[in-house]
Structures are given as structure tokens and as C-alpha cells.
Amino acid sequence: MLSEGSSFIKGLFLGSLFCLVMSTLVSYGPSWHPGQDSHLHHHIKAPSKEELQRLPEAQRLELSQRVRVYCAIMVQPKNLEHWTTAKDTWSKHCDRAVFYSPEGSATLEVVELQEQDEWARMRKALRHAYDHADDLHWFFLARPTTFAIIENLKYLVLDKEPGQPFYIGRVAKSGELEYVEYESGVVLSREALRRLTEALEDTERCPERGRALWRLNEEKQLAECLKYRGVFAENGEDTQGRGLFNSCSVGSLISESLARRPPNVLESCCSDMAVTFSGMTPNQMQVMMFGVYRLRPYGHAFHDSLMFLPPVGSEND
Amino acid sequence: MAMKVVSSRCSFYLGFLVGTCMLYFLLHQAGFNKTLPKLSDGLGTTAKALPKQGTEHKDWRVEGSALINQNHAHHSGEDSRIADELYKKVRILCWVMTSPSNLQTKARHVKATWSRHCNVLVFMSSEEDPDFPTVKLSTGEGRDQLYWKTIQAFHYVLKNHDEEADWFLKADDDTFVIVDNLRWLLSNYTPEEPIYFGKRFKPYTKQGYMSGGAGYVLSKEALRRFVEGFRTKVCTHTSSVEDLALGQCLEKMGVAAGDSRDTLHRETFHPFVPENHLVGTFPKSFWYWNYCYYPIVEGPQCCSDLAVSFHYVDAEMMYLLDYYTYHLRAYGYRHRYQPPLPESLGVLPQTVGGAGLGNEPGVGGNAAEQEAESKARLEAEPAGNRTAVLEKQ
């Protein structure tokens, strides 16, 4: 009885020691990271006010010239309402907005891609964008169901070098692959897009028709191709770590937050400098246009380091 | 003897297993606790980073059934000198018409959003709630009680808060009000003038009356005359149609119905949600067409940039409008509409002119615009580029 008891205790002690040693080894192991840590080096934030004010004016001017955005908007003729809404609202704030469609359109200006496959269309559109970018260094790829605040996008990438590869948006993970969600918009620097166009030539690593069994959707295909050329997805967020790119509507973010009953509903869900929202009706997008570009409380000023003027010939902003 | 060896070996293995599992769970607990602070830190730092955006408890001082604002709600990174000046000069008492059953479903959200910008805040109900707090009016609930509630509410605020406010706003618990814009509107008038503002309707009266749902605001003199009217029986409870009855009383008492539109003649008080005004089209048979005092404008010009109110706003939309008004913005955007500085503010010691480029006027509208243009160096390139660099602040 006693020997059994002491054996048990010995076993207990050795078991605990074993467990301790194993966990220590595992947690310091190179391949194992807790979910949060793996994102730590993939966060993009806008420059702080202090950072910007430290720069000489000439340099700030240079930055303002550099941060110009080419918007590639992938439309569907069957969703005409969102197409016309995007054209009438946020896309007016792009330095250039080009609409890409599988088919031509009699009424709206569009680049006809003549591809039915989403990935094939994305490839063509991005290649076309790169060839026609002229001196625009930043690219924003989105569907018209997304609403983007281009000024906030510019602010986010203001101090980032477009000659460096940047692939920014709302990052999600699928197995080992980190990709930017299409629904909340994809931001690419000129260099990232250049590398992509090179990658698209590689029919083995970046095929046009994915292998039949393992068809990935286009957002993941994009991530794969970019990854082979050393371009990795980075999550755009504000100084408080809130995501700037949203795959859902502002209404749903708010109702989720309300349900959680935090001390401050808006602060825990939604950034002041948000770049995108998605899944809103065309009417809601018009209201957002009013809310972002017009509605404001009198007597509150922000001394931003850059000024963006309203587009010519527009009324709803 | 052999049995003993086997059983002690079994005990050993059992002990090993138990020890491993025990410590595994122990470590997991510790690890779990490590990540938990991280998550709450995320929210915690959010709250810490904006210390001035306090909870209601810090910002309000409860005096009986009224909430007295202690801290004009601020936002980090902004220059609100003009708003602060107006807050001191144009003191607004907001009273919100609510009911016991609406406290948690509607009034609570009013309290968490726009009403934080009032100088004094009072919730009017048919029952007293010391925690919310609400004032008990001696009425019941229901549409037929609306004018009774309004009469009593106005009597109450004049009696109890005469000294603390210059203007007295009535709102429903589904009205969203942008109090800072109301101050801008009222700053060109004085509380000694007998005048009131709201969404002006025309029928049944000579000078028009203000829509109840869209909210309306009385000057102190207007409020005094309203109360005086009841004392002298010039005004009585004529009907339960609160906004019309009040309008008729004020007309009798010589209170003017003001024009609340902005300098471009765009409406500021709105009886519906933004979507209805901006995008919706009202059918030609809709009563609204015959009611509006000023011509209805549909589309973007329906509504001033400095909108004051919207109505039929549910809980979610309260936060949405709060988000659009006070939070979400486009970085560096220079608004098309540059509203003029109220004359009553004059020249501020540190002019906002140089600093407030793009968002707020300096001294006088046009002068500031020109000043802004010359201070900001615009791009030489045509059409495409519309950015500029501001001078170092």
C-alpha cells in the first residue's frame, strides 16, 4: 500500500515535470506561435501627427504628390445599382477610377474584360491598371459593393514608399496563407503590382486556371501569387488597433457592438479614420457620403498636415 | 510479490498521467489569463487613449432629476475652441420626451449619444426614475397626453433651470440632435428675443409652427411667454396635437417663428431620417408637400452640412449618426460649405484662420477662404491632383 502510494507520488512529480519541460520547449520552439503573435509584424498604421510635423514642408509636399490612387472597380452589369452608386459617390475621390466589367456597357464607361472567371478578370484588370497607371503609385482594387474613403487611404499610406511592396487591407488567414479580403478592398503599391504582373507570367506558380481540385477564390489566388514574389499581406489599422478595412456594413458593426454592451459603443467597434465598409445598400452609401464629406458639428477643427479638395462638378460631397 | 510490483507500477503510471494533466491545465489557465488581459487591454487602451471621452458618470453632475454637463465632450486630436466658445455663450437645456417603457430601449441611447453635448439635460416621463434620472410629470402616457406633457415639461424647466440655460430644446426619444450646429444657428439671436426654431410647417397658423418630432427650441423669452400664456389663460390645452397647439399659443403670445435654414437656404431640422431626405422621393400625394413652409428640396441640397436634427431615429441609427457627425471623417478634406463665423464670436485671440484650414472658417467666411488658399500651396498639375500641403502649425 505504501509502495503504491509512493509510486503514485513519484509518478505525479515526474509527470508534472515532464509537462513543464514539454511546454517550455514547445513555446520557445521556432515554429509555434500563438495566433496573435503571428500578426504582430504585419500591421500598417498611418503616420502620427508628430511624425508628419517633424518633416520639412518640402518633403510633405513631395508626399502629397506621391500619394495618388488608381481605383480599379470590378463591376457586374447585373448589379447596375451598386455600379452607378459607386460612380456617383466614393469613386469620385480617386485620382483615377476605372470600371472593369466582364461585358461592355452601352451607358457606362467601362473596360471590357471578356472573362467570366473572377480570377481571370482580376488578373486582366490589374495588368491593365499597371499598364495605364502613368504616374499613379497606389492601386485600390474593390467591388462597387464596397464604400471607400480615399482620403483616409491616402493618409494610411502617406509615408509608405510605393517603390516597396505593400499589400494592405483586412487580413484573414486560411491555413498557412494570409490574404487580404477582397470585400473590404485591396491596396497595392506600385512595386507590389509590378511584382504581381511578373508573377502572372509564371504559369506554374500563378496559373490562370487554378488546378481543378484545389480552386482557391480570387482573393487567395492573389495572395499566393504575391507571396511567391515576396509580397505579404498587411493589416491596416489605426492607433488603437481597430481595423480600418471592414468587410461588413457600419450598421452591422454598430449593432454587434451594442449587443456587447461596452462602455463606449462606437469606440469599441469603429475607427474615426476607417477606409472601407462593405455590404451597404446604394441608399446607405449615399447617406455615408453625406455623413463623411458633409455632416459635421460646427466649431471643431482638425489641423491635418495635408488638404484634399473636393472633386469638381460634384454635389453630394 | 509480483502483484505488488505490478500495482505499484500502475500507481506510478497513474501518478504520471495525473501529474501531466494537472500541470497542463494549470499552465493553460495561466496562458489563458495571459491572453485575456491582452484582449481587454485592446479595449482598455482604447478607453485610455481618449481620456476626455469619459463615461456619462464623469461628464454629468446629477442635480435632482437633471443632468448638468461638466465636461464639454471632447475628441482627441481636434481643435474645438470655437465649439467651446459657443458652448459657454449659447447655453442649451435639452428636455427629452420619453416614457417608462422607452427608457432602456430609446432614452438610454439618447443619453449615450447626442445629448452629451447639451449644457443641461432632463428626461421627462410619467414616472420618476432616480437612477436614470427622469422627471415625473403628472400625466399618463399616450399620444393624447403629448401636449399635457409638453406644457408641464416647459413649466418645469423654466421653474427649475431658468438660470442655467438660454435656450430650451424639446426633443423626442427618437430625435437625433446635433447640438453644436444648433448653437451655430442660435448664435445670431439672443435669448431675450421672443423667437423659436424648428422644422417649419405652414398650415393652420399665420406664421407657421414647428414639427414636434424634428425637435424645436425656444428662447428664454419665448419660454417665459409660453408659461405666462397659461397663467393668464390666453393659452390652454386646446388639443393633443402638441406641435400645432404650442405653435398657436406662441403665435398668440407674440413669439416669432424663426427661419432655421442655413446661409444657403438649406433645411437644418428634419422630420425624417437622412435617407428619406437625401435619396428618397416623397410621393406627390404625401401630406409633407402641403405642410412644409419652405419649398421642399430633394437630393443632396435637402439638408444642410450643419444639420440640426433628424427624426424616427432608432437605437442603431443614433450611434450611426453620432459616428458620422462626431467620429468618422475624411482626412484633410476641405469641405465645400464654409459656414461663416457667428458675428457674436468676433475675432478670437488665437485666430483659427491659419490653423483651421479646410475645416473651419477664420474671421468671416470669404476672407478665410482666400487666406486659406494663399497659405496652402496647391499642386501645379491640372485636374487630377487636388492635394495641398498646409503650413506647419
UniProtKB/TrEMBL annotation, chain A:
It is a single-pass type II membrane protein. It is found in: Membrane. Coiled coil: none annotated. Residues 1-23 form the signal peptide. GO terms for biological process: protein O-linked glycosylation. PANTHER family: BETA1,3-GALACTOSYLTRANSFERASE, C1GALT1-SPECIFIC CHAPERONE 1. Belongs to the glycosyltransferase 31 family. Beta3-Gal-T subfamily. GO terms for molecular function: glycoprotein-N-acetylgalactosamine 3-beta-galactosyltransferase activity. This is C1GALT1-specific chaperone 1. It comes from the Eukaryota. InterPro entries: C1GALT1/C1GALT1_chp1. It comes from Paramormyrops kingsleyae. GO terms for cellular component: membrane. Transmembrane segments: none annotated. Keywords: Membrane, Signal, Signal-anchor, Transmembrane, Transmembrane helix.
From TrEMBL, chain B:
Keywords: Disulfide bond, Glycosyltransferase, Manganese, Membrane, Metal-binding, Nucleotide-binding, Signal-anchor, Transferase, Transmembrane, Transmembrane helix. Residues 356-365 have a biased composition (Gly residues). It is an enzyme of class 2 (transferase). Pfam families: Fringe. GO terms for cellular component: membrane. Homodimer; disulfide-linked. This is N-acetylgalactosaminide beta-1,3-galactosyltransferase. The lineage of its organism: Eukaryota, Metazoa, Chordata, Craniata, Vertebrata.
